[in-house]
Sequence to fold (445 residues):
Amino acid sequence: MISLHSIDLSKHVAARGIVTLPGSKSISNRALLLAALANGETRLTGLLDSDDTQIMRGALKVLGVAASDLTDGQISVGGCAGVFSGHDGDIFVGNAGTATRSLVATLALTAQPGSEYRIDGVARMRERPIGDLVDALTQIGAAIEHTGNPGFLPLTIRSGNIQIDRPIPIRGDVSSQFLTGLLMALPLVTVRGSKSAVIEVVGDLTSKPYVEITLAMMQQFGVIVERDGWQRFVVPAGDAARYVSPGNYAVEGDASSASYFLAAGAIGGGPIRVEGVGRNALQGDVKFADALASMGARVTMEDNAIIAQTPVDRHLRAIDADMNHIPDAAMTLAVVALFAEGTTRLSNIASWRVKETDRIAAMATELRKLGATVEEGADYIAVTPPAALAANAAIDTYDDHRIAMCFALASIGPRGVPIRINDPECVNKTFPRFFDALGAVVSDA
Fold:
């Protein structure tokens, strides 16, 4: 049963079949912005149609970027060569972190005299930090005003006096999206002169694979950034900093979304074949497959597909693992831990605290509803499964799409139980037809 308020998932002992992934949210929003900033028109294919990408498309419309309607994952975006024709506007960013951080950096470094952009989001987005990015931008002359609580949305951005004479320090331990935003925006400054820009990361950089996506996509749009490890990045100047449309750009499937179906295969027998990502994917979340294999699942990697099955002995094993490189997909492992023998400890996940909700606290609360013993810390969670899962738990989702999707797994496999997911429509953020896709691969035999 599904309503606007909840969906009841029956127990299904088996999961097998083929899943074609929707486009990656991370790649889709980066591709939309890069296409808008480039010289020339870009035809994007495989683009995700979800709340977050609709927010980015809406923002680009306010900024005067010409784009066709999105049809079957295809859209054409007319590049503005880094100069927006819209100089004044209210931009609503919802709870879309990647869109927010990239747009703030881009507008702060491109605002023309007389421009004024007012950026705001939902209540949770007003609680998610942006101060470190704003500090980095204002240090080089950006004109950004906090119109609410310092360090958070809402913001007003006007034309500044940008200077890149010295290295730009930015913290890396809260969110990699701060660095991503700065990296994508700086070529719009350096293209106008002969001086490159240097970014220096302060502290350890979290979620490095997402920065790798940013660098790879910038290169696909013509800008090659040099880096010294993960602490120093050099953005080129002049023509080397000019974004140029590749003409056609294909968005690969969402690797974070793949995790739910690969986990379903490991819990429910399988095989489940997930198509759209594979060993050659840009996204670091494909490494979820390695973590699942370390729990005993049988995993096969192909160029553009991944296959997962239950272990030969049908027993998943607990793991103790650093999840800094795949924080989003690590949430799925916390639910797989309900089906594993022993205590699974996922560490180095402090970034969970500043996502769509405080994910460490939320996951601990909901896992306990199913009978798990959970220990949580500032940057880790440890999950010990009960002898039998508690049936018919009502899982609260905190307006967080990933909580809704990963807890759906509790209904799968011989040890699965009926479960209720509250506010199931939160999956529209990244995977609007998630429950349909899951229903197509589960069965009672």
